[in-house]
Automatic annotation (TrEMBL), chain A:
GO annotation, biological process: cell surface receptor protein serine/threonine kinase signaling pathway; innate immune response
Region annotated Disordered, chain positions: 36-58, 389-420
Protein name: Evolutionarily conserved signaling intermediate in Toll pathway, mitochondrial
Organism: Drosophila madeirensis
InterPro entries (UniProt xref): ECIST_C, ECSIT, ECSIT_N
Protein family per UniProt: Belongs to the ECSIT family.
GO CC annotations, alphabetized: mitochondrion; nucleus
Automatic annotation (TrEMBL), chain B:
Occurrences of domain Acyl-CoA dehydrogenase/oxidase N-terminal (ranges): 112-190
Residue ranges constituting the Acyl-CoA oxidase/dehydrogenase middle domain according to the UniProt record: 210-296
Principal subcellular localization: mitochondrion
Source organism superkingdom: Eukaryota
Name of this chain's protein: Complex I assembly factor ACAD9 mitochondrial
Subcellular location as annotated: Mitochondrion
Organism annotation: Drosophila madeirensis (Fruit fly)
Renumbered residue ranges of the record's region Disordered: 24-62
């Protein structure tokens, strides 16, 4: 009973704290990459957030925030600072505040995914002192502030997807004993996190490479998994004589799509649409599609409602080692995955600059690489796609480029430094 | 007169005559659908154009009966066909035996490879099934199969000869008199050696063949372009290729006008070129090559049958080739069995004769049963073709090939287990046997396609007969009476109620065996009905269930043929007939269990019989492009 009440209390307090944490971590993660001026704003908010996070006490001991003032923001400096704190005096006064400060500045140092750093922070805690000696201490959260601090540390690890190891268990055991709440948190994490770790159907290498070209390849590869026969090509615009931009183009297309393109009516235009976004871990890649309006006639032909499934009186038998007919295949035609209701998609690409010129190069490279029919079809640029508008609705206006503009390439260049 | 010749022994014993007009099976489901069957229409129409079945004395054929195995799918049996056909008259049989003596002698003695072709010509092996009008022997199906038994013991030689005979069969059936005039004489003497050129190394993605032929109306000629593979060639001889090519009907555009046309192409025509030789796994003495056709000019007389309508004649083509290739498989299986028996008699290990080990005995007997069933099926099918005019044996011939090749391969690979590592020693008889078995297994159509063909053909036939019932079962609320009727049925998959009385048509010893057949047929019919009810016409997509259907119908036909043959043998007292009875009983007991298991799997549905799991697994497999599990010792943290 008592334990349950305790838990409830803790849960409430920690959810409140968690939301605060989330509010301050997530933008931090984004800002680091995409906007320099917002990071400054974040800095200004920091003191308030910190105060709220540590329990709202107004008379905090004055601790110099070494992390904010550090010049050289690397892992080494970070670890050195933690080490200096540990060696400064034997009492390690204000270590809870120190840990909170250290946690908050992890992304600045680029160590938020580093297990070693978290271990170093836990190591700041004194060993043995916080281990409860009787049942009541254990149930009433012996040294709650310290325990909560380490729980928050574990929470941050969880948010960043850093999986603890057995050494960390031993450390927590030494600090809080086997009845400590951090250890319980640790055990829960060790139940779930391994299960979630490999659940993604499109696993990314860890760490994700830092090169944009590599990330673009990963992105296009992942989008092309709808068709197993897709091939990813990396073109260089240098290959063309009069390309203005000299950049790379990652293009994904399958033989099926080539076939659809070959059979596409020469009278109907193709559209290059985009940019759309795909997130590869915390990096955003812009990509474009080459598509045409859906072939309504063909799709209507495939309408399943016209089929009488109950009629078994004319089953076809094939000869000569051909696969048996499918029920929907009476005319020898099948709807491919690329023929969606709202359009047929022929290819996708991501380019180094995302400019109109690079996309033009893409079309010409496709034409030169096995799709001669593109040359005979009008290709239009359509940067007024409905999808960015939708994502603007969802994500808010901050990071999404203008949906339509007179000179889309230039405007995109300005507000999307992420791609290049 | 002919009737009395045709029927001896069993037929007389069983006191019925096949001369009476067709008696229908008891099942009411067998509606008259066979008249729609294109194959049968051909059977009727081919006669005026072709020559009569030219045996030594022209035999009169009986009117066609309902197809045997197709009717198994609707639960109907033609009991009269339990009398094993005796199509070669007594006097003819004696003559045939005499004619076969030199062939048997020739193939039983070891010989060098040189001058084989010349010897084959002298022995008249190319003319076995060429009509007597064209100086051939004029044997019918059964007789020509019997006559080609000696040569098929040499698998590599047999393969080439059978390909030749298949083309002759087709010419005899659908060739025009002009074509027969032009080719059959040369084919009969072996001056011209025919072979099929059907399959291609890389078939196109969305068509039958990439070999194309176009018609030029001005010169009334065809131009052939393309490349065929796996063509059995006779080196240094003038050859006649039977080529299937994709053609487009002149006044119909698009896929509707797409068709195949069968051409006869002489190897000496301009533009025909023999390509590289395939390095085959088995049958190494046979030359299999690619053949290239570059702008080969063909006249209209070189088209077999009607242009663009090759699929219709393919039925006759594949029927002949399936039957004849089964014979090669059968001979090889017999040889393997004999060799293994000899080995187990001769070998003693640790003082124990291998032949006394139960494991070996069971294995040998299994092989015996398989070979017995193959042989019975082959000659039953050929007998049906000979005895009845235009009899539909599409399914029977496909099943014969399917069963023969599967069992042959099983026997060949089982031998490895008995003999051990020695069996794969290069040059060993069992090694060559395994190689040849594997080669035959892949020759022509793949075995999976064949099984799909069997199931689809059966379902096509059953679908026509069952259509109205299936529609009712699939819409139960519109047809409550029908459904209540179904509920009241007491017959189940475990204990099907049958009223076929098959045992009245076989020797009493085989009563239990006949019971097995009855129950299996009833189970097959129930499974087919269930599949239709469950899936409607989407049944064609349930390939793993169709595979089971193919297996079931194959097993039933094997049981049927074995029982028919054993019954005849015992009734007329052939040597070792009592052991034939035992063999047939063994085939049937084994077959009943196989059928029961498979039918239960179909009844269980894809969630019970594991199909669902397998299909789901395959999704990830294709996504990962292969084996997807990580190493068993991988750490996650």
């Amino acid at each position: 009973m008592l334990r349950r009440a305790q838990c409830l209390l803790r849960m409430h307090s920690s959810t409140g704290r968690q939301s605060l944490c989330a509010a301050q971590h997530v933008p931090a993660a984004l800002h680091r990459h995409y906007s320099a001026d917002e990071a400054n704003r974040d800095e200004k908010q920091n003191p308030n957030a910190k105060r709220a996070g540590t329990g709202g006490s107004k008379s905090l001991p004055a601790v110099r925030n070494v992390f904010a003032t550090a010049q050289d923001k690397t892992k080494d400096t970070y670890l050195t600072m933690v080490e200096i704190f540990g060696e400064r005096d034997v009492h390690r006064r204000n270590h809870v505040e120190f840990i909170y400060a250290a946690l908050k500045h992890m992304p600045d140092f680029g160590v938020e995914n580093d297990l070693e750093v978290y271990k170093a922070l836990i190591n700041v805690m004194p060993k043995g002192k916080f281990i409860p000696t009787n049942l009541f201490q254990a149930e009433f959260m012996h040294y709650p502030k310290q325990q909560q601090c380490i729980i928050d540390l574990l929470e941050q690890m969880e948010d960043f997807g850093v999986m603890p190891d057995y050494e960390m268990e031993a450390m927590l055991l030494n600090v809080f004993g086997n009845k400590g709440h951090p250890l319980r948190k640790y055990w829960r994490m060790m139940y779930w996190m391994p299960k979630f770790k490999n659940l993604s159907p499109w696993p990314l290498p860890n760490p994700v490479p830092d090169d944009t070209l590599e990330i673009a390849k990963l992105a296009v590869e992942r989008m092309c998994t709808v068709d197993l026969r897709s091939k990813i090509n990396v073109f260089e615009t240098k290959e063309l004589k009069d390309a203005v931009d000299e950049t790379w183009i990652v293009s994904g297309m399958s033989p099926e799509q080539s076939k659809l393109l070959r059979e596409h009516s020469r009278q109907k235009a193709l559209y290059i649409e985009g940019p759309f976004h795909i997130w590869i871990r915390n990096r955003r890649i812009n990509y474009f599609t080459l598509r045409a309006d859906a072939d309504a006639e063909f799709l209507a032909q495939l309408d399943e409602r016209q089929l009488d499934e109950d009629d078994v009186s004319n089953i076809e038998v094939p000869f000569f080692g051909r696969p048996p007919p499918r029920r929907h295949n009476q005319l020898g035609k099948l709807r491919s995955v690329h023929q969606q209701d709202d359009g047929t998609i022929f290819a996708i690409c991501a380019t180094g600059t995302s400019t109109k010129d690079s996309l033009l190069s893409w079309i010409r490279l496709l034409e030169a690489n096995g799709n001669p029919s593109i040359g005979e079809v009008p290709v239009l640029f359509r940067f007024t796609s409905t999808v960015p508008a939708k994502s603007e609705e969802i994500e808010g206006p901050t990071s999404v480029p203008a949906t339509s503009s007179d000179s889309p390439s230039r405007s995109r260049k300005e507000d999307e430094p992420s791609v290049s | 007169m002919i009737r009395s010749q045709v029927f001896s022994g069993v037929a007389r014993l069983l006191k019925y005559s096949r001369g009476t007009p067709l008696i229908r099976g008891k099942s009411s489901k067998a509606t008259t659908t066979s008249s729609l069957d294109p194959q049968q229409r051909d059977g009727g129409s081919e006669k005026p154009g072709g020559v009569e079945e030219a045996a030594e004395q022209p035999q009169q054929q009986l009117p066609a009966r309902e197809p045997l195995v197709k009717n198994f799918f609707v639960g109907a049996v033609d009991k009269e066909l339990l009398a094993y056909p005796e199509v070669i008259a007594r006097e003819d049989m004696a003559q045939l035996q005499n004619a076969l003596l030199p062939l048997k002698n020739y193939f039983s003695e070891p010989k060098g490879t040189e001058e084989t072709a010349q010897n084959l010509k002298q022995l008249g092996l190319y003319g076995l099934n060429v009509p007597t009008d064209y100086d051939g022997r004029g044997y019918g199906w059964s007789a020509s199969l019997m006559a080609s038994e000696p040569d098929s013991t040499a698998t590599s030689v047999g393969l080439g000869l059978q390909a030749h005979r298949v083309v002759v069969d087709l010419l005899r059936e659908v060739g025009t008199p002009q074509q027969q005039q032009r080719y059959l004489l040369a084919l009969g003497t072996g001056q011209l050696i025919a072979t099929e050129a059907i399959y291609e190394y890389t078939p196109p993605e969305d068509d039958y063949f990439s070999t194309q032929a176009t018609f030029t109306p001005e010169s009334r000629s065809w131009v052939l372009n393309g490349e065929k593979a796996y063509v059995v060639c006779a080196p240094g001889e003038r050859q006649l290729f039977l080529v299937l090519a994709q053609t487009q009907q002149p006044n119909v555009s698009g896929t509707l006008g797409r068709g195949t046309t069968i051409f006869l192409v002489d190897s000496q025509q301009a533009g025909v070129r023999l390509g590289e030789q395939h390095a085959t796994f088995g049958c190494r003495e046979t030359q299999m090559r690619r053949v290239h056709f570059d702008n080969v000019q063909l006249s209209e007389e070189q088209v077999v049958g009607l242009p663009h309508d090759g699929n219709r004649y393919s039925e006759q083509l594949v029927r002949a080739s399936r039957l004849r290739s089964s014979l090669v498989g059968l001979s090889l299986a017999k040889r393997l069995l004999n060799e293994l028996t000899q080995y187990s008699v001769d070998t003693t290990q640790c003082g124990v004769h291998i032949k006394d080990l139960e494991l070996t005995r069971v294995h040998l007997s299994r092989a015996m049963c398989s070979v017995y069933a193959m042989e019975s099926m082959l000659y039953l099918t050929a007998g049906l073709l000979d005895e009845f005019q235009g009899q539909d044996v599409t399914l029977e011939s496909a099943i014969t090939k399917y069963y023969t090749l599967k069992q042959l391969y099983a026997i060949a690979s089982q031998n490895l287990g008995v003999v051990g590592p020695k069996s794969l020693h290069s040059g060993q008889a069992s090694e060559l046997g395994l190689r040849d078995a594997a080669q035959l297994y892949t020759q022509g159509e793949s075995i999976d396609t064949l099984s799909m063909f069997i199931a689809l053909t059966g379902l096509q036939h059953a679908g026509q007969a069952m259509n109205s019932g299936v529609r009712k079962s699939r819409n139960p609320l519109f047809h409550p009476g029908h459904i209540f009727g179904k509920f009241l049925e007491t017959s189940g998959i475990e204990n099907p109620k049958t009223k076929m009385h098959l045992s009245e048509h076989v020797h009493p010893t085989l009563e239990a065996a006949a019971q097995c057949i009855e129950q299996s047929v009833a189970r097959l019919q129930m499974s087919v009905e269930l599949m239709f009810t469950r899936h409607g016409n989407a049944v064609v997509e349930r390939q793993s269930e169709m595979q089971r259907l193919a297996e079931i119908s194959t097993t039933i036909y094997a049981m049927w043929a074995s029982v028919a043959r054993a019954s005849r043998s015992y009734c007329i007292g052939l040597p070792l007939a009592d052991h034939e009875l035992l063999t047939a009983s063994a085939v049937c007991s084994q077959g009943r269990d196989t059928v029961l298991t498979l039918c239960k799997e179909i009844f269980g549905g894809n969630f019970v019989n594991n199909d669902n799991n397998l299909v789901r697994l395959s999704n990830q497999l294709t996504k990962s492009k292969g084996y997807f599990a990580v190493h068993p010792l991988t750490f996650n943290f």
